[in-house]
Design brief:
Strand content: under 5%
Organism: Novispirillum itersonii
Radius of gyration: 20 Å
Helix content: over 70%
GO molecular function: transmembrane transporter activity
Keywords: Membrane, Transmembrane, Transmembrane helix
Pfam families: MFS_1
Structural class: mainly alpha
Distance between the termini: 48 Å
Largest sheet: none
CATH architecture: Up-down Bundle
InterPro entries: MFS, MFS_dom, MFS_trans_sf
Number of domains: 1
């Protein structure tokens, strides 16, 4: 059992503990992040094989997002009441269950069991995304963006581990393609859980359990509204396009290995900038970096509209990853400025609930739009939410300049 950590100051952890937490969270991010990559790389392909209708091909990935959205508030409550470590271990259990259920679904040919597995995978992914906020616990305010981004940088390894896990195991049991992949994914989740057991954070205080100001007051802040909108659009569009891309590549006659490689570089692009994103936020501000991120997502759609070769898909996925990094981490840094330490788990949970709730819309719609109207329509639709949130960011920047 974890005991409360004596801090050097009321709100700060000792430097050695801070470094240890960041290292463990970054490694766990690398391993646990492979869960999402495996689901995205295989979900639509397995879905198209097992689903009773082609329209349901991307339903497993949509339910993955539903699992993320519906688990955010319960996970936040667990963290607020029992500590972040308890939430981490609950997520690790869900990650192991994901792999075991998915492998069984592939062997048995049960589409709805596979959907249940990806739902638990979404639960796990939601817990993994809370690592970024956990890295800021007990860290001085000026150092929080860097701590947050360093943990997210662990996702670079996930961009290699996930696709390579798929490519190296998908045909080991030819009769049941991808079954071994998910068994290995369960093993990786178990290893990540062991690493997370060493994370040391202060136990929740009575004030933190009380929750601080009413949520209505917090979420009414213009900065929170913009932060949630930016995070939601960045993540929704990343999910919207990435969900459809592997199936679109399949429909264009490109091999599974091309889709795996594209997703690998996409995930690397999502996390590689994290080594410098924290510094960029400190130097230029979270709002400006978020604007750049959203513009890069727009560039990704333009690249995708340029053609349907493997290079077009890869270029689109790489630019999409870069845009997500700047947009989402910029939004996350803005969230850190909207709450007190006692309000952190509650406010962060509400923010992520909004983000993943919006993602559900994009995830559920992408497969139907792709199958009905084609890949170009999926790309064209991305420009509308981009325009809306860029207007919000511009208004916030003008208001802050006026103040």
């Amino acid at each position: 059992m974890m005991s409360p950590v004596p801090a050097a100051a009321p709100d700060l952890l000792p430097p050695a503990v801070q470094r240890g937490n960041i290292w463990r969270l970054a490694v766990a991010q690398a391993l646990a992040g492979a869960n999402s990559v495996v689901v995205y790389a295989t979900g639509a392909i397995i879905g198209s094989t097992l689903a009773p209708s082609p329209v349901l091909a991307t339903l497993p990935i949509s339910l993955f997002v539903v699992g993320m959205a519906t688990s955010i508030l319960p996970v936040g409550k667990i963290a607020r009441r029992y500590g972040r470590r308890a939430a981490f271990q609950t997520g690790s259990g869900a990650g192991i269950l994901t792999g075991l259920l998915a492998a069984a679904a592939v062997i048995l040919g049960w589409f709805w069991l596979f959907c249940l597995a990806t739902f638990f995978g979404g639960f796990y992914a939601a817990v993994v995304l809370s690592f970024r906020f956990a890295a800021a616990d007990g860290v001085a305010p000026k150092a929080r963006p860097r701590a947050l981004s360093l943990v997210m940088a662990g996702g670079i390894a996930a961009g290699v581990v996930g696709p390579q896990l798929v490519s190296s195991t998908m045909d080991l049991w030819p009769v049941y393609r991808f079954a071994v992949t998910f068994l290995m994914q369960a093993a990786v989740a178990a290893v990540a859980g062991v690493i997370l057991s060493g994370v040391r954070v202060p136990a929740p205080t009575a004030a933190e359990q009380a929750g601080g100001r009413p949520l209505a007051v917090i979420v009414a802040q213009p900065r929170f509204i913009v932060a949630a909108a930016c995070g939601a659009v960045s993540y929704m569009l990343m999910n919207f396009l990435m969900t459809a891309a592997p199936l679109a590549m399949h429909l264009c006659g490109l091999p599974q290995t091309a889709a795996n490689l594209g997703l690998q570089w996409h995930v690397i692009a999502m996390y590689a900038p994290s080594f410098i994103t924290g510094r960029l936020i400190v130097r230029f501000g979270a709002v400006r970096l978020s604007v750049i991120g959203l513009l890069l997502i727009g560039v990704a759609s333009v690249i995708g509209l340029g053609g349907e070769t493997d290079l077009h898909f890869w270029g689109m996925l790489i630019m999409l990853g870069l845009g997500w990094n700047f947009g989402f981490l910029g939004a996350s840094a803005m969230v850190l400025d909207t709450h007190t330490p006692d309000e952190k788990t509650r406010v962060q949970s509400v923010n992520d609930f909004i983000v993943f709730g919006v993602m559900v819309v994009g995830s559920f719609s992408s497969g139907g739009i792709l199958s009905t109207y084609g890949w170009a329509s999926v790309l064209m639709l991305s420009f509308l939410p981009l325009a809306l949130v860029l207007i919000l960011l511009t208004v916030l920047a003008v208001r802050r300049a006026a103040d």
